Amino acid sequence: MSTIGVLLAAGRGSRMGRPKALVADWLARGLSALEPCDEVLVVLGAQAEAVQRRLEGLVGDDVSVVVATDWAEGMGASLRAALAVAGEGDAEALLVTLVDLPDVGRPVVARVVGEGASRGSLRRAAYDGEPGHPVLLGRDHWEGVAAAAVGDQGARDYLRRQRVELVECGDLATGRDVDSLPVAPTD
Prior knowledge:
- This protein is an alpha/beta fold.
- It contains six helices and seven strands; from the N terminus they run βαβαβαβαββααβ.
- It has a single domain, classed as Spore Coat Polysaccharide Biosynthesis Protein SpsA, Chain A (Alpha-Beta Complex).
- It starts with a strand and ends in a 19-residue tail after the last strand.
């Protein structure tokens, strides 16, 4: 049974003022976090060429890149692009995380994947009881997730209708996404 780690990094980062995949070392951190997965897929969109240049030297043979041409629609488009690529292979599950979660690392991913994923897996990290990312989607759920992934919703509506196993990770990270960088004080 194999798991593909998916790093969603397609957004424009309008509140950030630039694509979050171009912020500091977030791309490298996201890739590192997905090391417990058998393969890694990075979904790009805004400024894809610039992000691909940043990816050079960071990716190995087990990392694939797909550009979500309709990325401006929102996270749903990125997730559908990942599901389409994964559907061509024989992976049992996707572990989906976001590029703007800089404190979510390998320990969180390893805990959510757990002893392994199956076609029926549906798990999600929780931080102090609040659901967050990453989310583990067994292959049996891909069709329903793709149908629900519209706009900036991703899998949210699908997950609300399912029995999702929450995996507490609040002892490992905050799981908070970062929408803006702190402004340095001026004298």
